[in-house]
Structure prediction request, 434 residues.
Amino acid sequence: MSVRQSAFIDLRPLTTSPAFARLWIGSTLAGLGGQLTVVAVMLHVFELTQSTFAVSMIAVAGLLPMIVAGLYGGMLADAFDRRTVALLAAVVTFASTALLAVLAWSGLETVGWLFVLSVVNSAANSIVMATKSAITPRLIPRDLLPAAAALQGVTVGIMVMAGPALAGVLVAFAGYAWTYSLDVLLMTSLFLGLWSLPRLRPEGEVVRPGLESLRDGIRFLKRAPNIRLQYILDIIAMTFGQPVALFPAIGAVLLGGGAITTGVLTAAVAAGAFLSSLFSGPIGRVRRQGLGIERAIQVYGLSIGAFGLVLLAATLGWLRPDIVDESHAAVALIVLAALVLAVSGAADNVSAIYRSTMMQAAVPDAMRGRLQGIFIVVVAGGPRVGALYAGTLATIAALWVPPLFGGILILGLVGTLVRFSPRFRHYDALDPQP
Prediction:
């Protein structure tokens, strides 16, 4: 059976471009380490504060610096050698993670330090991500962009599936210092992937970083209704359908199992993303990618709403032991929660494949860094706003309220917006128009 007819993932980007293959491997290993730190910091802050709101504020605190860094990083990627930009930003990410490890080993970690270093890490990482996304279309032909996006889904699946589960185990049995240190070790692979790239200066007219460069990108976005709407749809999904900030409290007080449950729930999302990428062959053959985004986000909304129903069942005492703590867990409900979260991860990954392909195919190279910067702000900023929504609503109501009502809002808003955007629904991958 040919690659194009197979249901399995298309691996041709790895065999066609050795540079892309090295970058993909390095990014995957570094991403796995990054997830160790993300989950460890969440658990660390919850241990120090016993506050779900404090956990949600980690993401919120990094929102503005991440937005600024993402936008400026995109401008840098459109003005200078993209390999150099990515390497310098990776150095900052590495240094912030190393300092986390040093503080944990010395016993000097505080909530303030955890917040500050998380902010620095996320800001620098947004520059790395924006620049790498702008690099990809220069390494492989356009017809392989969906396959490259599916490989990115494998990366996300591996790092988020294995990372949180490993983080939960490491934190529980080895402590925070070892967890942060392992991230430092794994991140060295990213430097190998970036260092081996050729020089990649932007093609076309170069605009120096600054307000005019940013205005130029915004003007392009105003003339790009398909790109603009996919941003809006992703913001809706991530704002109202991102319950990750609730996981520590769910594991501690609602479903039991503590840090291990937190890791299992987070890993379930990644498992869905991984499996959907593994069987992504048909995704690359779909031409109406706007319609694919709409359907995928609607499935995402349904699965997040179902997760809220599982938490409601736990709140009502259904399928739940009388006592839940780190040693006593509601296993049946944890399994149900993991299953619906796996569906959400699969749906989000399918949407991400189409969104990434549309971005990389329809946006010209000279503008790609700035648009990728905005794209990263949307992708990374949406979950942080979602963390604020989930943490605040859970604090004033209950843990099941944010996902249940969020899923309903996603379905209603996405259906309404796409209905009035026929160009988006009929977007043709063979004639990519922004």
Q: What stands out?
A: DSSP finds 17 helices and no strands in the chain.
